[in-house]
Amino acid sequence: MIATVCQKFLTHGTEPLLKGFSPSPRGSLKTTPDRAKLNSFQTETSQCLVASPGQSLNGSVTAPGDKSLSHRAVICGAIAVGETTVRHLLESDDVAATIDAMRHLGAIVEQGENGIWRIRGVGVGGFRDPVGIIDFGNSGTSARLVMGAMSTTPITAQITGDDALCRRPMGRVLEPLAQMGARWSGGQGEHLPLTLIGAELPVPIVYRLPVPSAQVKSAVLLAALNCAGRTSVIEPEPTRDHTERMLQLFGAHIDVSQTNESERQITITGHAELKACALSIPGDPSSAAFLIVATLLVPNSHIIVKDVLINPLRMGLYDTLSEMGAVIDFQNKRETCGEIVADLHATSSTLTGVEVPAGRAPSMIDEYPILAVAAAFANGHTKLQGLGELRVKESDRLTAIADGLRACGITVHETPDSLVIEGAGSKSVQGGAQINSHSDHRIAMSFLTLGLAAKKPVTVDGAHMIATSFPQYTDIMNKLGADITRGAE
């Protein structure tokens, strides 16, 4: 049900979200002053937003720092020797959870002048026992990667998260970490909350991923840093390779080989000494997607999103949009932070439905909600396959997408791992619905995007969760010409 009182999602309130953070002192408890400030922010931020059709979108913006790279930069900096500096770090709730965890484990993480973050690491194997509980909030990435990083150091940590995170499965990560020597207690059904006990004598392993998962792969690679010998991860299909790239920047020795047409093996040599780096985080293509798709759908629009990461293993959405007829140009390609970036120029486009193969899912697993919205405005049907993983994200995204589209007048056929969306065309999407975000930031932003191009406004409940990945979303969209306001009572 829509909250009885809906306050505006004030993006200016997000700007100081992390600026007040200070290193957690030894002996700090679960709710440090920093975390308390964060929780207060979330309580005061809006519960519902309304997106209304209006003027075209035009202008040039920079996407927020990539969330995947921001998590990894903080973790790698915390286990490196020396001081790592990070520019354009994503200042969101999810990254705040990773920062808080690293402070609990002994690293010093501070924001300096000009938005530059400084991380003084403890070295590989240098984590200390945290006093109190590490709370990962809503961030599954934080939980899984940090569990990997700490699992081969002989420490004991109590870890938890919010209600949504505690419903998400952790068994996929715990299984390989147990093979390396880690143990855990609690965690009924392999869920948070649990107590993780790091390995006294960690052992290297060869681990074949049962399903493609960059988070599981990353957890094993981070755990392997404090193991003697060589650890290998075999993935049946390539997944985002940010961990491999960033670890190499910090000095880890990693070999990547193609074992067959689709299968890759990533091997890392343990007991490496990571050395501090100076990093500049590229823009997040998953966040840029909301700006780009809104531009494609709203008539007479043209925007430029600068400095966007275009890692080939993250381009599934953009490849699909191109197949649908989207006009998106990638200009000024260059390299930063070991990754390729570009400026994305997008123009209003007429889209046609397509069939998206299941094999593309690993390269666009976070973008299916916004792709589904694009499909609603396309001519003809769009078939999305291989979506079973969406049922264990921040929400059951598959059902949330289907229910939201139906509420906005779109015909959707749902199976356990696929959606078929009957596109209504660019001028025939009704909108006019109240959408439950299910505390999922990507569902919230996707249906706000729909409201900008539909016939009638769309109200989204639980919009405060947008702060987990894109705190400046409303501010940026409205500067481009969008009409997103607070919801009525």
Question: What's the SSE blueprint?
Answer:
Elements: H1 33-44, E1 48-52, E2 58-62, H2 67-78, E3 83-87, H3 93-104, E4 108-111, E5 117-120, E6 133-135, H4 140-150, E7 156-160, H5 163-166, H6 171-179, E8 183-186, E9 194-197, E10 206-208, H7 214-224, E11 230-235, H8 242-249, E12 254-258, E13 264-269, E14 278-280, H9 285-297, E15 302-309, H10 316-323, E16 327-336, E17 339-347, E18 355-356, H11 368-376, E19 379-385, H12 397-407, E20 411-415, E21 418-424, E22 434-436, H13 441-453, E23 458-461, H14 473-480, E24 483-486
Helix pairs in contact: 2-3, 2-4, 2-8, 3-4, 4-7, 6-7, 9-11, 9-13, 11-12, 11-13
Strand sequence of the main sheet, in spatial order? 22-23-1-24
The CATH top-level class label of the largest domain: Alpha Beta
Strand content: 15-25%
Q: How many helix segments?
A: 14
Please give the largest β-sheet.
4 strands, mixed
Q: Let me know the average pLDDT.
A: 89
Class derived from helix and strand content: alpha/beta
Total domains = 2
Give me the count of strands: 24
Q: What gap, in angstroms, lies between the N and C termini?
A: 12 Å
User: Within the CATH hierarchy, at the fold level, what is the topology of the largest domain?
Assistant: UDP-n-acetylglucosamine1-carboxyvinyl-transferase, Chain
CATH superfamily of the largest domain: Enolpyruvate transferase domain
What does this structure look like?
The chain has 489 residues and is α/β, with parallel strands linked by helices. The chain folds into 2 domains: 46-65 and 282-486, Enolpyruvate transferase domain (UDP-n-acetylglucosamine1-carboxyvinyl-transferase, Chain); 67-280, UDP-n-acetylglucosamine1-carboxyvinyl-transferase, Chain (Alpha-beta prism). Helix content is 29%, strand content 25%. The protein has 14 helices and 24 strands. The chain has helices at 33-44, 67-78, 93-104, 140-150, 163-166, 171-179, 214-224, 242-249, 285-297, 316-323, 368-376, 397-407, 441-453, 473-480; strands at residues 48-52, 58-62, 83-87, 108-111, 117-120, 133-135, 156-160, 183-186, 194-197, 206-208, 230-235, 254-258, 264-269, 278-280, 302-309, 327-336, 339-347, 355-356, 379-385, 411-415, 418-424, 434-436, 458-461, 483-486. The strands form 6 sheets. The chain has a 4-stranded mixed beta sheet with strand order 22-23-1-24. It has a 4-stranded mixed beta sheet with strand order 2-15-17-16. Strand 4 (108-111) and strand 5 form a beta hairpin. Helix 11 (368-376) packs parallel to helix 13. Mean pLDDT is 89; it is low at 1-46.
